[in-house]
């Protein structure tokens, strides 16, 4: 029997973006969107949830906050080596402030040339006027600057309300819309210095670390990297992005220390410009985010949060890599590895035994006995409990230390 229930119309992201562009500070409450535009609240929520690269939620308000930034190289003396394929805007920073009067500005004044027209279309901003686009980008840049230093690379003053549409500026020709993703053959294998880090198997390919991977040309399912570890970040439910090498190494150094529950991640370095820089800049700004190794998140006050994960070199029976050897610790004033004496009672269980049980069932309990006591180690809550007294200690599983502070980049 056919279902005659009428289909509920979806709200197209470009329509929602157009509406928010006309609201103060590019934001509106769900109730305001219902009253002003007739947008059904559940449908707005669904649209925002689906297109997180365009919208954000702040309490009951929806904010137009696309993942968009100015290309650092385009506004410096250096020429952006990615050209039309750049993932950030090639727009003059002074033009956004309505202060550039160059007839032929090398930084660009037009939105209808690459890569700008591609980015605008992909982020569903194509219904916005030139004036609205300019104000939006400056608002985003101010937000990045607030997350970073006062003299940050992307800091721009507020846009004057007198800015007018200038869709055609001299000095640049419209070279047409061309998809930059389709004119070159790109290896299907993902490397740690690429923009996105999504891989089928979330591990580092051992062959990529020690030599040549025979599957690189056809597509290796693991991440390729020069080191046996790497760190990535994403918005909840979003795409994994590769952190810069210096950030990944600093996280690794601290994560290998069982006493470290949190650490401050180094800011993105705009001078070390690579393919991941632009997207990470849009995601993280120039802020100093705090990593929490218990929740595996990055946080920035007051309420911004990203997820992080560590990718490690794959396990091979015939090869031992220090980076993929885990040590188990229990809290007793200091964090002590299993296998040492405690209170004159021999702790006979070893990290290797615990690791073996953990890999067999990560949500089970592992029971072990010392000379005096019997314990239950709960992998789900990461606690060790004395079966007799009921006293519990925290437990941590961390990689065996393999980096020194002097090994860090920079």
Automatic annotation (TrEMBL):
**Residue stretches making up the C3H1-type domain:** 65-93
InterPro entries in UniProt: ARTD-AVP, WWE_dom, WWE_dom_sf, Znf_CCCH
Q: For bias kind Acidic residues, which ranges apply?
A: 162-182
Pfam families registered for this protein in UniProt: WWE
Give all residue intervals belonging to the WWE domain.
314-397
Lipid metabolism listed as a keyword: no
Question: Might you report a single GO cellular component term?
Answer: nucleus
- Which UniProt key words apply to this protein? Metal-binding, Nucleus, Zinc, Zinc-finger
Subcellular location field:
Nucleus
Region Disordered, annotated ranges: 159-185, 388-410
Q: From the Swiss-Prot or TrEMBL record, give the protein name.
A: Putative poly
Q: Tell me the classification of the organism that encodes this protein.
A: Eukaryota, Metazoa, Ecdysozoa, Arthropoda, Crustacea
